[in-house]
Amino acid sequence: MLSLNSHPSGRHFLQIPGPTNVPDRVLRAIDQPTIDHRGPEFGALGRAVLEGAKHVFQTQAPVVIFPSSGTGAWEAALVNTLSPGDRVLMVETGHFASLWKKLAGRLGLDVDYIEGDWRHPVDAAVIGARLAEDTQHRIKAVCVVHNETSTGVTSNIAAVRAAIDRAAHPALLMVDTISSLGSIDYRHDEWGVDVTVAGSQKGLMLPPGLAFNAVSARALAAADTAKLPRSYWDWREMLTANAKGYFPYTPSTNLLYGLHEALAMLQAEGLPRVFARHERHARATRLAVAGWGLELLSLDASAHSPALTAVLLPEGHSADALRKVILDRFDMSLGQGLGKLTDRIFRIGHLGHFNDLTLCGTLAGVEMGLAAAGVPHRTGGLQAAMEFLARTPEGAAA
Amino acid sequence: MLSLNSHPSGRHFLQIPGPTNVPDRVLRAIDQPTIDHRGPEFGALGRAVLEGAKHVFQTQAPVVIFPSSGTGAWEAALVNTLSPGDRVLMVETGHFASLWKKLAGRLGLDVDYIEGDWRHPVDAAVIGARLAEDTQHRIKAVCVVHNETSTGVTSNIAAVRAAIDRAAHPALLMVDTISSLGSIDYRHDEWGVDVTVAGSQKGLMLPPGLAFNAVSARALAAADTAKLPRSYWDWREMLTANAKGYFPYTPSTNLLYGLHEALAMLQAEGLPRVFARHERHARATRLAVAGWGLELLSLDASAHSPALTAVLLPEGHSADALRKVILDRFDMSLGQGLGKLTDRIFRIGHLGHFNDLTLCGTLAGVEMGLAAAGVPHRTGGLQAAMEFLARTPEGAAA
Amino acid sequence: MLSLNSHPSGRHFLQIPGPTNVPDRVLRAIDQPTIDHRGPEFGALGRAVLEGAKHVFQTQAPVVIFPSSGTGAWEAALVNTLSPGDRVLMVETGHFASLWKKLAGRLGLDVDYIEGDWRHPVDAAVIGARLAEDTQHRIKAVCVVHNETSTGVTSNIAAVRAAIDRAAHPALLMVDTISSLGSIDYRHDEWGVDVTVAGSQKGLMLPPGLAFNAVSARALAAADTAKLPRSYWDWREMLTANAKGYFPYTPSTNLLYGLHEALAMLQAEGLPRVFARHERHARATRLAVAGWGLELLSLDASAHSPALTAVLLPEGHSADALRKVILDRFDMSLGQGLGKLTDRIFRIGHLGHFNDLTLCGTLAGVEMGLAAAGVPHRTGGLQAAMEFLARTPEGAAA
Amino acid sequence: MLSLNSHPSGRHFLQIPGPTNVPDRVLRAIDQPTIDHRGPEFGALGRAVLEGAKHVFQTQAPVVIFPSSGTGAWEAALVNTLSPGDRVLMVETGHFASLWKKLAGRLGLDVDYIEGDWRHPVDAAVIGARLAEDTQHRIKAVCVVHNETSTGVTSNIAAVRAAIDRAAHPALLMVDTISSLGSIDYRHDEWGVDVTVAGSQKGLMLPPGLAFNAVSARALAAADTAKLPRSYWDWREMLTANAKGYFPYTPSTNLLYGLHEALAMLQAEGLPRVFARHERHARATRLAVAGWGLELLSLDASAHSPALTAVLLPEGHSADALRKVILDRFDMSLGQGLGKLTDRIFRIGHLGHFNDLTLCGTLAGVEMGLAAAGVPHRTGGLQAAMEFLARTPEGAAA
């Protein structure tokens, strides 16, 4: 078997903002014999996960599950609802928003792109203004990223919904929740989202390989007239087969075992408690960053992500060199800067299957890495985080 | 954890023609912690599986690995090489050929479909004739299924290649090897195939969730001019990232662990021995069918599949009722009849991680099931298979 | 990782009469992180398995669990209840009875040994006669093997109990159920057994490494006066710690996880159904042996074991040569002849996690092996077994 | 499956001084199908682990492996070499030394017990003096604990050897290395140890369930005349069977798979590096304890254990209350005070499969726990440990 860790001893700290640490329970669930995807046992599994997934999206609408990465769910959202040349309004929150935009362009869509500085959330007022100007309703969809994984900035989806409503604009609302679902409060139904895009490898605590679309009735209606060619991603055959717990092509059976287990774990913990746990760990992390005297990438205090924290390095210091020291010396993987942030930031993932002491180990690795790499900083960051964690038990008001 | 088997004791016999029985070694490999898909350990894994996969396709050309089902690899083959309205020549070998045709139609391709009776392989002469008629080279691709999983009929790809060559036609050759790769001799390079389509859950002995395209230089060149919209399936970003062992979006890390292990197992056994093992088990199975006095679906003796055997029920008897008796009484899953063969046939998978005694248990289940379900037959089918297996050791000339 | 199977493909058939095939559910349960054996989670686990184990022994008495092989449980039974020089009455049912006798001798006990021919069960009348002669009650214990794993002969424990009672003799009754517990009806309380000896690796479907003593009140009282030196095996500290779910020294935590799962599986199937399943498979096996024209080792039809079947080879043929052919050609392990039966018999295990098709594969392996090894036999053994299995569903009266 | 952790999220910190955190590689190795313990694959496994184990004991002598807890290996050491009434010299280093003494007494040995305060290592001079007084050589064995798990004090075995040699006394030297083997430099041959006692669940990184005796030629000779009754623990049949890789009774097959993997991991890291890693983590831990202003139980700086650290609570504070807060709030198990140290100390295990960040998480849990439980202390303990770890890379001179 391929040796997966160059460190001789101890458990790797996987603190990128996804894929996250997969719980042993989930890995063991995946490690069961594959079954007949057309047999009765599979049907029961299929019905259970299709129904259970709705809970995490806080929806009554159908949730479609693809054997694909999250990128596939981006594509699925667009090809099911739009036609070549359709205009979509997208917002540059960071690297992943820019990738989604690039994908839309490749599919032949006409992207109206609201530029951003990668340090702020979506500005709902700007969206509202664009929609108000669009009196002919050429914009068919508004696409935003709930939690921008490349920057650690979370946008207010309810505000986006309100802006669309105020403009009385018929555009569909599509939201990428790849790094927020199961970590940050997200309400598909309440916020009137038409297509929610998600993946398995973040808050859902699974390995990568499953992607999701939660689909509103309006989105489903749009699928009947949308003209972008599609087959693999088509919702309609999927939903027909899903009705009995099956899939139109071979699903990723073993990852569905894992999904079943992960949904049970989230249900047992309870979503409010899950969200509070992420908030608490994010706050502790930001206290550590402040303690080190380093700068958060996120500039809007109301938009700091509960799932990950991006940290800017002092001018003239290489984030990638720091990450390499931390990986080599302390066996921890941190997220790199992507796109225009390459080498400028590192990202600490504190989402998914996680707890206080793993967070402390993580912050210790950063603090020792800063010292080992010669990055100017103050000590005491972890100390500040610990004081917060010790005096603020889980479940207490943060 | 969801209980996956309604039978209280013993191991389920998964004898559908895929997904196949996943070896414990592969399941345990998958059951390892997910790692950073951008870190150095991942790069080593990625390079190893991308290189190792070539061996199974018998190619020096690049092999692209998608996180998707095999259906995705069908779509990828088409969208990377073709433009809207392009004509493709397809051959109706059975249900899966018809699904691929349907998919092509949805993508806006113009399918020239050579009809078939689902009991014979591809007739290379007919392909040759169509191409010869196509003097303006409007046909851009010839798409055939190597081993039709719905019928147990294997087609001669070398003959198709020869027919194309004789016609001196520039059409690309695309071959679906979903249920042949790793089970039946298949030679991407020698047979001049441009795109080979494959999946993880058959001869590769993995759970479903990975799909493959082996891509010739001509196919890659076609990708530069092909105009079907594509992003997720695009080979070009994939190959750029693959050069260093990485992927342009999050790959299905844990299934890649399994792929690494499965490739090692195939390499250790040796492809010639793997192919001979499948041939031998298929022959034993046909001896059993003959012993029972039942009819093979496959009518051309030179095209009987080494990977699965489809058996017709006597008129007036329900194959699905038989399969239900066998599942309920003997805890074995057999393949159902698909499309127009629904309820008329059952399919015995004898591919992947398999051996003589599991085959005997499988054939015993069929023979006892025929008795229990009241299907007219002779006893002695398994006996005939056993006599063949006993006097023909693995490795002896079959 | 050490490669554990020289065969390149397919699942090994482990058809020795133990260790038996461990269900995937049990292996996965064992594959969980080890926990603090003094913490609250462990206490809950300990209480659950200590209580659950009683059900399988059909007792209300305490069941002691040792981290050891079954041999340790033999030793524990004796050292807890007896003093140096004590006389014990033992019965030569086969190799394992002779090993237990040897062990008793090493501990300084005086063994009164009723000889046997290894082809018959315990004769309760002979035991009764010996006890009747022992008017001074020098015999302190009667030790018998319920199911002699070396011969496939099962003895009637209720009859032994009745013989002791008729003799009005105070000797303790100790019974080895290593290869019967969880496979053959066994009633610690109803049959008035004082110490039941068992192991994990047969009907309990676990890997080897746990051993058991079910202990009656009389046996426990004997422990207070018994003078054989003991510490590791001492019941008293064990029972004190067990009261709260803990153990006096570090228990085999991960095997206890497996025990928890295995007990749940046995409970779900239901003991009566488990026993009937074993009876049915044993009967099918004997029909196969008769079909081959071979001789059962067991000569008393009322004592044929439901758990395994020992088969004599025709004079002049080597059972070990046959087993080697079967292992090399068909990847199946069968039990060897032990002690004076070396090379004369082979033993087919049909106990534990098992079902009809695995039995058929097993019998196919024997039948093909007989042919391949040139052992004179008739074909049709498996055919006879299959006819029985097909017409006698599980749950029907056998 | 029983839920093993009351905490809803994240990985439990198992920081008792054993059982230690079992590496995933080892758990997965154990999670393989059980094989025939009399077949050829098993023989290869048996030979590999019996040979490989010698390396960890730094011996050429045979190593016997029992399916038992470490307590069994204590008993095995004594019953194989001694006769009833034999005198043994034992040293009260702590709770485990006192348990071994109790065990010896139960076996009928005459223990000459050198008392101790549980805060110092073995005093070799006192042993030497006792032996010098024993001119009639009534003392048959000297039994010491290398690393006293209950106190975190390590004794100098070379010094004990030298004292015996100086006294020219023929007593056997027996050493308990249960919590040192594979963590602290230990040399069975060089130090002239006759019987080394060990277990699987500490530095060997396995679950509990295997125990070891490394046996010198003198010890083996003693076994021929020793008169304590024994059977399960008898070395002689064991060594006879071991010669070909087998065992006289069913071994704990699946734990042996794990042993094979664990030995490969230790060999790959290299024993000197393993020992240095433990020393470094112990030093960091002591810096943290000093930083908190708490008192080490160990009073002799040259005897501080590299494997665990025992910390005294300020008078009037309950260690068990602290441990409960830490378990409930931070999901970490720490070792409790045993025997007369109950509720007075807690023990931090930093042995086995371990690394810097897990140590930091561990120390963070202690520091936050001290705060949460209201135990008087200074902050900054972890900070001191981190500064040491950051400036002292693994492999640098500590």
Distance between the termini of chain A: 45 Å
CATH topology of the largest domain in chain A: Aspartate Aminotransferase, domain 2
Full CATH superfamily name of the largest domain in chain A: Type I PLP-dependent aspartate aminotransferase-like (Major domain)
The CATH level-2 architecture of the largest domain in chain A is identified as 3-Layer(aba) Sandwich
Number of strands of chain A: 14
Q: Pairing-aware structural class of the strands and helices of chain A?
A: alpha/beta
Number of domains of chain A: 2
GO molecular function (chains A, B, C, D): alanine-glyoxylate transaminase activity; L-serine-glyoxylate transaminase activity; L-serine-pyruvate transaminase activity
Binding site for substrate (chains A, B, C, D): 347
Domain Aminotransferase class V (chains A, B, C, D): 14-320
Protein name (chains A, B, C, D): Serine--glyoxylate aminotransferase
Could you characterize the architecture of this molecule?
Four copies of one chain form a homotetramer. Chain A has 398 residues and is an alpha/beta fold. Chain A folds into two domains: 13-20 and 270-391, Aspartate Aminotransferase, domain 1, CATH 3.90.1150; 24-267, 3-Layer(aba) Sandwich (Aspartate Aminotransferase, domain 2). Chain A is 41% helix and 16% strand. The first copy, chain A, is built from 13 helices and 14 strands. Chain A has helices spanning 24-30, 40-57, 70-81, 95-106, 124-133, 157-166, 217-223, 235-242, 253-269, 271-292, 319-330, 356-373, 381-391; strands at residues 13-15, 63-67, 87-91, 110-114, 139-145, 147-148, 153-154, 172-176, 195-199, 210-215, 295-296, 308-312, 332-336, 345-349. In chain A, the strands form three sheets. In chain A, strands 2-10-9-8-5-3-4 form a seven-stranded mixed β-sheet, sandwiched between helices. In chain A, strands 1-13-14-12-11 form a five-stranded mixed β-sheet, sandwiched between helices. In chain A, a hairpin with an 8-residue loop joins β13 (332-336) and β14 (345-349). In chain A, α1 (24-30) runs antiparallel to α9 (253-269), α2 (40-57) crosses α9 and α10 (271-292) packs antiparallel against α13. Chain A is globular and about 60 Å long. Chains in contact: A-B, A-C, A-D, B-C, B-D, C-D. Chains A and B meet through α1, α2, α3, α4 and α9 of A and α1, α2, α3, α4 and α9 of B. Chains A, B, C, D: Its cofactor is pyridoxal 5'-phosphate. Chains A, B, C, D: Keywords: Aminotransferase, Pyridoxal phosphate, Transferase. Chains A, B, C, D: Residues 14-320 form the Aminotransferase class V domain. Chains A, B, C, D: InterPro entries: Aminotrans_V_dom (IPR000192), PyrdxlP-dep_Trfase (IPR015424), PyrdxlP-dep_Trfase_major (IPR015421), PyrdxlP-dep_Trfase_small (IPR015422), SP_NH2Trfase/AEP_transaminase (IPR024169). Chains A, B, C, D: This is Serine--glyoxylate aminotransferase.
